[in-house]
Amino acid sequence: MISKTVIIMICFFAGMMSAHAEKVRNGNETALAYIEAGDTIAKQAVIQRANDLIHTFRYLRVIRILRDQPEPGLYRIETIEPSSDIIVVLDVAKRKISLDLAATLVVGDCLNVQGRVRSIVAGVKGEPPRMLVESANLRFKDRSAPKAGAETLDEVDPRAVKTAQ
Q1: Which of 32, 85, 111, 161 has the most CB atoms in a 10 Å sphere around its CB?
Q2: From residue 120, how far is each of 51, 62, 71, 154 by CA, in Å?
């Protein structure tokens, strides 16, 4: 007779084998695809492909910081994505690391962010389109543009360990 422990272990490992992490998309490319989409139908297709999925953004330049938004103790940060000029609105996650970094930000800083795209809306009255990213994890302050040539991992993510060249 098989013991309960063996059955639990089999179920656990079977679940591990079938589980997979959600794919992370490039938010900068999504923003650019939205801008380059010609008509409303093409823009809706970009929105449908992006909605409710996790995206990573680089080089987002902070243009406005709203404290205690959308609720007390949190931050809503408005940024500009450089290749598309889309306003990316970040509702910062309740993670301590993100909140601590948000508290140090000033207008003009650039960010590396990961979060779930909730909406993309066309700009009104000549304003650029807006993309809302909820549960945004502020990963680190970033440079304002890609480095010419290849970047090493420690240049992309300052938390990475620098290796000998």
Answers
A1: 111
A2: 8, 18, 21, 32
- The C-alpha atoms of residue 91 and residue 77 are separated, in whole angstroms, by 7
Query: Domain map of the chain by residue range?
Result: 21-143
- Total-model pTM: 0.76
Q: How many residues does the chain have?
A: 165
| CA dihedral over 104, 110, 113, 117, signed as positive or negative | positive
Cα 41 to its chain centre, rounded Å, is: 25
50 Cβ contact list (under 8 Å, min separation 6) = 25, 30, 34, 117, 120
Which helix (H) or strand (E) segment is 107 a member of? none
How far is residue 114's CA from residue 22's CA, in Å, rounded to a whole number? 13
Q: pLDDT by residue (tens digit) across 20-57? A: 566 778 999 999 999 999 888 999 999 999 999 999 99
Query: Residue 140: in which H helix or E strand, if any?
Result: strand 130-142
Write the pLDDT tens digit of every residue in 55-113: 999 999 999 999 998 889 899 999 999 999 999 999 998 899 999 999 999 999 999 99
Cis omega (within 30 of 0) for bond into 128: no
